[in-house]
């Protein structure tokens, strides 16, 4: 007769064997698959870049008061003008391996440059918008932040700063628009940015609702009306004689 203890040991040993086999095979398969994709990517020939979604710097839409508000604004505007002469592409969220597979390994350096130009564009627009806001030029700040949103920036601060400015003006529909725009972000900041925007929207709209409720509750409680108050009310009621028909 087989001992129950022996049977238990065999079963446990079997589970351990299967578990070790699974865990030892999966990482190996993943590494082999990655190396194979990388090998194919490195051997991919150079492809045309004509179909890339190039971004034009909308200089006409960027506020640029003359003379410049301060030296920092002047420097940022100069950088934006310089970027207008370069090729810009938003490649956020696309791995180098995928870029090489699609456009060829020889194009990776130039693609990296295009993507870095996009990062510079977003950073310059964000800093310019913040500087306009800091110096009290709110209209210029809002316009600049919106330019950044329109080119597809993934800088969370651009969205949240603009949302706070809209909230102060009671433009809650615009905050919802920003949430919709942020949903297109391809970087890891997407989820956190949407959450921050939703919190801004919820906090300000709930405050408005509360304020509205406070105004309603400010009406006098009938139980708290004093006799003198009743006399004042009666005096406002037109007198009607009992013999009037």
Task: Tell me what you see in this structure.
This protein starts with a helix and ends in a 10-residue tail after the last helix. It has helices at residues 4-42, 71-83, 96-103, 108-134, 138-150, 156-168, 172-182, 190-217, 227-235. Among the domains are: 44-152, no CATH class; 154-207, no CATH class. By secondary structure, the chain is mostly helical.
Which terms summarize this structure?
single chain; 245 residues; mainly alpha; 66% helix; flat
Write the layout of secondary structure elements.
Blueprint: H1 4-42, H2 71-83, H3 96-103, H4 108-134, H5 138-150, H6 156-168, H7 172-182, H8 190-217, H9 227-235
Helix pairs in contact: 1-3, 2-4, 4-5, 5-6, 6-7, 6-8, 7-8
Order of helices and strands: HHHHHHHHH
Radius of gyration: 33 Å
β-strand percent reads under 5%
Helix content, binned percent = 55-70%
Instruction: Classify the secondary structure makeup into a structural class.
Output: mainly alpha
State the low-pLDDT regions, or none: 216-245
User: How would you state the average pLDDT, rounded?
Assistant: 83
State the end-to-end distance: 114 Å
Characterize the overall form. Answer: flat
The biggest sheet, with number of strands, parallel, antiparallel or mixed sense and barrel status, is: none
Number of strands: 0
Q: Please give the count of helices.
A: 9
């Amino acid at each position: 007769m087989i001992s129950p203890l022996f049977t238990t040991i065999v079963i446990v040993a079997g589970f351990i064997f299967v578990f070790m086999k699974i865990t030892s095979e999966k990482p190996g398969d993943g590494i082999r698959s990655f190396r194979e994709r990388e090998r194919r990517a490195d051997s991919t020939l150079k492809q045309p870049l004509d179909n890339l979604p190039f971004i034009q710097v909308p200089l006409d839409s960027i506020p640029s008061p003359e003379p410049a508000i301060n030296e920092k604004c002047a420097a940022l505007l100069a950088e934006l003008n310089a970027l207008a002469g370069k090729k810009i592409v938003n490649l956020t969220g696309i791995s180098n391996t995928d870029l090489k597979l699609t456009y060829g390994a020889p194009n990776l350096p130039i693609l990296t440059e295009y993507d870095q130009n996009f990062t510079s564009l977003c950073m310059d627009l964000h800093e310019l918008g913040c500087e306009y806001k800091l110096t009290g030029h709110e209209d210029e700040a809002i316009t600049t932040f919106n330019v950044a949103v329109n080119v597809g920036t993934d800088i969370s601060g651009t969205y949240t700063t603009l949302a706070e400015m809209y909230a102060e003006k009671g433009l809650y529909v615009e905050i919802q628009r920003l949430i919709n725009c942020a949903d297109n972000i391809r970087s890891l900041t997407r989820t956190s940015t949407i959450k921050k925007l939703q919190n801004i929207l919820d906090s300000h709209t709930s405050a408005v609702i509360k304020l509205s409720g406070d105004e309603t509750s400010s009406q006098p409680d009938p139980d708290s009306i004093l006799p003198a108050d009743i006399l004042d009310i009666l005096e406002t009621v037109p007198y009607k004689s009992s013999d009037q028909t």
